[in-house]
Amino acid sequence: MDADHTGLRTAVGSPVWFRPWLDWLDAALRLEVDRLRVRYELAADEWHGLQVSDEQVDEALAGRGDRLGPPPGPDDEALAARRRALVLGGGGIGSPLRDLARRFDCTDVDLVALVLCLAPEVDLACQGVYAYLNDDATRRLPTVALCDRLAGSSLDTGSVTVAEGLVEVLRQPAAPLWRSAGLMLADPVRRYLLAADRAPAIPRAASPPPTASLGRPA
Fold this sequence. Notes:
The protein is mostly helical.
């Protein structure tokens, strides 16, 4: 994201290798928002997402839209093709995400989980979009369900990102189901991807719990 962008976007600046992934994520989230609005056919005076407004979400998703061209069609073919190209490229030479994916043999859904979790670290506006899609302003993390939809496959306790402790799975009493659980990067992974800590190896969690319930927003 450009550092001089105003509005909801307050990112610290995204790494160059991550910008194509952010472009893809913008398009994917835009499509999810459009589908949600069609599904609920919200009235003009209805609050959605407990006061996360349509206008806020539209502004949050507008930052890079002028570079993306028209959004993908309803069959998601263009969006899926873009994701496959990114997965195959892994973010390009010098991408820590590519190195991480090779080291842990990540699948498509693992990469999508990592991208969803990393995006708010460089662009805080993503939190508002996630809350809007979760229909709850207090649940500002990407969910397992969102990851599944964007990846076209299922994230579960046996997935690399979960089994190896690369992401934390956080549940709330108000959202106890697996698919409604929130996802967050483990701190060593966050530091590695943001180039704050380029240690020679990402520590593997010995036996990471499949889920945690810490009272944190999901």
